[in-house]
Structure formats: structure tokens, C-alpha cells
């Protein structure tokens, strides 16, 4: 390993290092649409160099990134973005521009991106290295080399940071009036605009997924849509017409796997924005469980239980911050039944045999287990509210304030 790193260091110093084309892999997008997501897998050497570049570039650009973006940034999570929508949606931001950028990672204009990088980085060697990775090309699954005149392939260590650098111009434009020094930047100015019937807005972005919350009318949100389309155009980016829409909070919308909706609290006249689990991740989880417990599956029960547990633990850790207790219990019953039916077919058990193996001495049903591995019970996952952290998110490099 030390010899490999020494050779890599020498190549970088003498300028002989050249990135190789990334290996393209296509994976189906969720939802059964038939569309695929292209991943570009760099070589080991290229990953090491990209990781090194990231260590150099990230502090420089993090100092200027606005706190309204949450994707692939230190100390930030998808839950922070969702919590911000919930917080401000409850406070009056009821209209939402639910936006989707068409093939963002594949379409970013290289010239526009490099212009953004040059505003903060002057070292020519670093700039040449970043450009070399952008222009490295793609080795398609067919084995043919393809040039990539635009985009930063998903799958690389550096790609998320480069995407954030490019889309930073969107954050700066949309959130510009509310930044310190802006004419309408203070909370007092926002309140004055509301009293005068003028709109306020704020953007919440996670990588290429973003929403714009509007304290105003549907027309105000539509006007912002046209304005943002103009901001994206120089980056060679455009909205997906089929997926971008203006929606009221009471209708609800999906974001990062969650369903956010403004609803009346049961038993009261108070309304809040609640966070639920969207339909797609629930269906995706069920599909994975069905695949593992297929009636023709001959895998050892212990291995199946381990894989099921791994999937359900990861899924529940992400979604436990939603209003999801009932959903978790329903899914736990679904999983139990799938495993029980699979075991009956696998062992050729009757219903009586199943009761004998899966009930305790009191006659109560218990979770299936095999060789010391017990099925994870989704119904016992504790749910809680994820607290909005706002400007309390720690980041040693951030210079911008979040009002």
C-alpha cells in the first residue's frame, strides 16, 4: 500500500497523473418507471486522488455555502432538511415549489462549474486536476469509451461536492434577499413584507432535490419557478416538467422519502405540518421482503433472517422520525406473515406445526428465529420527532449566517 501511495504521489508531483474513464453501471430508478440511474465507478487510484482533492476543496467552499443546503455536507442530514420544511411550513410558508432537475449530475455544464471553482481556487494544478476528472470520459457497459462533455458522474468521491458548488448559485440567488446585508434580509423586514401582502420565500435543498417554500400565493410560487428556471439555464440544467409542480401544504408532497402535509391536529383546531413515510419507500421495503421470502427460495432461514434484519434496521433508523408508529406495526405484521408462510412451505409445516414452533408457553405468538437469529420487530421501533436545528448545526468552516 505504501508503494502504491508513493507512486501516486510522484505522478501528482510531476504531472504525469491522468484519471482513467469511469466504469458505467446502470441501476433501475425506484418506482417501476423503467428509467435507469447512471453510476460512474472510478478506479482505486482515482478514488484516492478524488478523496485528497475533496479534503482540499471542501473547507474552502463550505465556508461560503449557505446553510439552506443539506446534502453531502459535514454534520448535516436529510432529516435536517425535512425538519426545516416542517418548521417553516407550520409558521405560514404554505405554498411549495416541489422541484425536480432533469438528470442533474449528468447535465451540469463543465465551463460553468469550473468558473464557480475558479472564484475560490487559484492553484492551477488543482484546477487542472478537477477539470481532468470532469473530462475523463466513461467506459460504457458495452466496453466502448464515451466522452462526457457535461456532467459529473455519480459514484465518484468528488461528484457530490462539485454538484453542490454548481448548485450553490441557485441557493445564492433564491436566498439572496434574505442574507445579511440584503434589503429584505432581517426578520423585521420579512414581517413588514407580510403585513403589506408581499411574499417571502426560502429554499431547502438536498443535493439536486429541493423545494422552495413560499409565504404568499400560488402565483408567487409560479413566478419563482420561472425565475429559478432562468438561474439553472446557464448551468445547462432544466426542470423535469413531469415532476416539478406548485402544491399547497394541505395537499402534501414527497421529499427525501417522507410525506409532508399540513393537517389539523386530532381533537383540536390547531394545524401543523406533519411528516409521514411516503408510499414509495414502503412499497420498496415490501418488495425487498417479498424477494427474500419468495416461496421458491431455498436459502437457510438464518441467512434470510439476517438479511431481513439488516434491511429493516437501516430502513427504520431513517424513518423513525416520522409519524410512523402505526405504519411500523402494520409492516411488522406483514413481515411476520411473509416469513411464517415461507417457513410453512420450506418445512412443509401445517398450521398446527407453525403454532407449535412460533408460540410461547402462554400461547402468544413470538418472532421467528433460527440458530440464535431472531426476526427484527419493526413494531417495537421507538418513533420520535427530529428537532429542527437551524443555525445550531456545527460546522467549523461556515461563515454565512442563517437567519
From TrEMBL:
Q: Its domain of life?
A: Bacteria
Cite the Pfam families for this sequence: GIIM, RVT_1
A GO molecular function for this record? Answer: RNA-directed DNA polymerase activity
What keywords tag this UniProt record? Nucleotidyltransferase, RNA-directed DNA polymerase, Transferase
Which residue intervals define the domain Reverse transcriptase in the entry? 8-260
Q: Looking at the keywords, is Nucleotidyltransferase present? A: yes
Q: Which CDD domains match?
A: RT_G2_intron
Does the entry feature the keyword Transport, yes or no?
Answer: no
The molecule here is called: RNA-directed DNA polymerase
Provide the species name: Streptomyces pini
Amino acid at each position: 500500500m505504501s508503494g502504491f501511495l508513493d507512486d501516486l504521489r510522484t505522478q501528482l508531483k510531476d504531472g504525469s497523473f491522468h484519471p482513467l474513464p469511469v466504469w458505467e453501471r446502470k441501476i433501475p430508478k425506484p418506482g417501476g418507471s423503467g428509467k435507469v440511474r447512471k453510476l460512474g465507478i472510478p478506479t482505486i487510484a482515482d478514488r484516492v486522488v478524488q478523496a485528497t482533492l475533496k479534503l482540499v476543496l471542501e473547507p474552502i467552499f463550505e465556508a461560503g455555502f449557505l446553510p439552506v443546503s443539506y446534502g453531502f455536507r459535514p454534520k448535516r442530514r436529510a432529516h435536517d432538511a425535512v425538519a426545516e420544511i416542517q418548521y417553516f411550513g407550520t409558521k405560514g410558508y404554505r405554498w411549495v415549489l416541489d422541484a425536480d432537475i432533469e438528470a442533474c449530475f449528468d447535465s451540469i455544464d463543465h465551463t460553468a462549474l469550473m468558473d464557480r471553482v475558479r472564484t475560490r481556487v487559484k492553484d492551477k494544478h488543482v484546477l487542472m486536476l478537477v477539470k481532468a476528472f470532469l473530462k475523463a470520459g466513461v467506459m460504457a457497459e458495452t466496453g466502448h469509451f464515451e466522452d462526457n462533455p457535461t456532467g459529473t458522474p455519480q459514484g465518484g468521491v468528488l461528484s457530490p461536492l462539485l454538484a453542490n458548488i454548481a448548485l450553490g448559485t441557485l441557493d445564492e440567488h433564491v436566498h439572496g434577499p434574505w442574507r445579511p446585508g440584503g434589503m429584505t434580509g432581517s426578520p423585521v423586514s420579512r414581517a413588514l413584507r407580510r403585513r403589506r401582502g408581499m411574499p417571502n420565500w426560502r429554499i431547502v435543498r438536498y443535493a439536486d432535490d429541493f423545494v422552495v417554500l413560499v409565504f404568499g400565493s400560488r402565483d408567487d410560487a409560479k413566478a419563482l419557478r420561472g425565475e429559478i428556471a432562468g438561474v439553472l439555464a446557464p448551468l445547462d440544467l432544466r426542470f423535469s416538467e413531469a415532476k416539478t409542480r406548485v402544491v399547497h401544504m394541505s395537499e402534501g408532497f414527497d421529499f427525501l422519502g417522507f410525506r409532508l402535509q399540513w393537517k389539523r391536529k386530532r381533537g383540536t383546531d390547531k394545524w401543523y405540518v406533519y411528516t409521514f413515510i411516503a408510499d414509495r419507500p414502503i412499497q420498496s421495503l415490501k418488495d425487498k421482503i417479498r424477494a427474500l421470502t419468495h416461496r421458491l427460495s431455498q436459502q437457510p432461514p438464518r441467512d434470510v433472517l439476517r438479511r431481513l434484519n439488516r434491511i429493516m434496521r437501516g430502513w427504520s433508523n431513517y424513518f423513525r422520525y416520522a409519524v410512523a408508529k402505526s405504519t411500523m406495526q402494520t409492516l411488522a405484521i406483514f413481515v411476520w406473515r411473509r416469513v411464517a408462510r415461507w417457513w410453512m412451505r420450506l418445512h412443509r409445516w401445517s398450521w398446527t406445526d407453525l403454532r407449535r414452533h412460533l408460540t410461547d408457553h402462554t400461547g402468544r405468538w413470538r418472532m421467528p428465529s433460527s440458530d440464535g437469529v431472531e426476526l427484527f420487530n419493526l413494531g417495537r421501533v421507538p418513533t420520535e420527532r427530529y428537532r429542527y436545528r437551524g443555525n445550531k448545526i456545527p460546522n467549523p468552516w461556515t461563515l454565512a449566517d442563517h437567519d
